[in-house]
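Morning F.,

Quick status update on the modeling queue. The single chain you submitted on Monday has been processed. Sequence for confirmation:
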Amino acid sequence: MRRSLVFLSLILAASVVGAHAETRPWTLDECFRHAVARSERVRRVEQDLVQARQLKRGARARTLPQVTLEDDYYHQNTVTLEDPSGSAGNAFAFTSSRNQALISLHQPIFSGFRDLSFLRYADRNIAGRESAVEVSTRDLYAAVARAFYGVLLAGAQLEALDNVVKVERERQREIAARHEVGLARRTEVLLVEAQLAEDEARLTRAANDLALAREALSYQLGVPAPARLEDAIPVPAGAPAPPDPAEAASLRPDYAVLEHAVEAARFQIKVARASYFPSVALDADFILDRHNYSLFNDKTHWTANVTFSVPLYDGGKISSEVATTRSLLEQALLDREELGRRIGLELASVRLALDSDLAQFRTLGASVASSEESLRLVQEEYREGLATNLEVMAAQNLLLSNRLTYERQRYQVKLDVVFLDLARGHIPESPDSASTQGAPPQANP
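Structure tokens below.
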């Protein structure tokens, strides 16, 4: 009996811990890790990396010996000769069919360093694909951040509207009571009721906006959005110092992609120029069995052949390939140079946007505080008969407008911080997919 009670208590404790784990809030980084584990766009780019690695395997295979097992069967029409006998009969076999089985070996010896250059090109191609995976995770982080703060903004605006509607409902009851005792006009009651109906409609629309924002976040995560989100990014005290574009470029994965593309283009030139050099290859055969061959061929057990070839004239094909690869290198250099300048522009624009949004956020914070105090004072004056109902509603609408703008600006500042980190080349490290596999989070009912 005691063991059963202990067992039941352990099950209950585990269920409580599991429920707590499902309903605990997720930060932006946690949402990002779950999104990376299930993102189709990242998986597609990773398949490009798989293909690049297989390309290197194929390039390495060209430098290794190729061994094949062959069986050659030959048949022709029967030929009749007048005097087939003689000394030549030991060297030639007169038969209409023959068969041989052999193992063939082909080994490239020298090809103008083409294979070595292509291997190095494959290495640069792999490095570029690895950086491309980082670019896809960087883009995914930006998309998750937009959806994450979209949910928080929609929730904050819904909360602000809900508080206003509660206040307006209380005020509607108050103004109705004042009207019954003759302290308020009927027009005042109708004005409050009209404002309440409008804000209730806005509250419904805000609830739908929140539901849509949660769907957008769920799309990015690949699982239902968690019930709660935790914003772990603080509002900065001030705009940071201008970052160094060169330092940012050295950390940016998209710049690394172009760096590797430049190096790969250089090796492509070497691959094309290798066609000018001579090539040497070894071909060898080990004969396993022969049937209906001459006595001389029957005594032959292996053969070896070294081929040496030098290109003398190809109509300009090699020079055309070299010129094409040089043009590809020039394009890669121009792409890298343009991205470097674009990174400088992006850093400046994001930093200045953060500076201006932060200043506006502080101004809106002061405006919200003033609007709250103004509403409090005008409500007191209305109760004392010193202010009109219209003035109370104007102060209330001004407070609501400032609060909604304040919340929007607050999360815009958070997004500016995220985008500035991305422009600098800083993103959270994406873990292995296995580390994020688990039960989906508990969605809002």
